[in-house]
Amino acid sequence: MRGRVFLAGGGGPAHSRPLDVEFARAVGPGPLSYWPVAFDSRVHNYDECLAWFRRLYEPLGVRAITMWTGESPLDLTGVRGVYIGGGNTYRLASVVHRWRMLDRLRDFVASGGVVFGDSAGAALLGADITTTAHLDRNEVGLDDTRGADLVCGHGVFVHHRDNDLPREHVWSATYGRPVIALTERANAIVSGHAVTAVGFDPLILVHGGTRRLLAPGATTYNNPASV
């Protein structure tokens, strides 16, 4: 994997600011493709979402920002970064699966592209989106819950709270995958086999019945072939 994957725990711009800065630096002036499709367009106005996103990233130097609304496949040729926003993870995955965009995301990262996942977006970039089953309702009737699997073989739990730890242990044992759990103040950058904690809270790493913390600024190395 030549590119990098950015994961935000879902606490909003105040808590993801260090990650936003790093992502903007990686993207440069753009083009950056923003995906609000985890939101129901009947409830959330996508143009307003785009205006919010521009207010967030233009001051960081990203000027060429476009939006994918999930109405047709997206060609990522020439795009430097993809930002996948939060919302309902099942809705997000249903749109992405409909247009077979997971393979495009994998190819994009393999060729050096950078992808940011916030909340639902972070869960999608992991091994399987059932990590959010306790948070989101599957109102779209999604059967295929596979994620992009761009996080060293891990499943990604977002909005982590202390009482989620037993759930994360069960998920890890059931799926035979390690877990990265992110509080709303925790973020991560994945590059190849390296996972680096970024932000204010440590990452929580769950596997094989054990739990360990990765302090902000620290890096751990994982081989996905071994999980």
UniProtKB/TrEMBL annotation:
SUPFAM superfamilies the record matches: Class I glutamine amidotransferase-like
A single GO BP: proteolysis
Highest taxon above the source species: Bacteria
Keywords for this protein: Hydrolase, Protease, Serine protease
Keyword Ion transport carried by entry: no
Alphabetized GO MF terms: serine-type peptidase activity
Similarity comment text for this entry: Belongs to the peptidase S51 family.
Protein name in the entry: Dipeptidase E
UniProt source species: Thermasporomyces composti
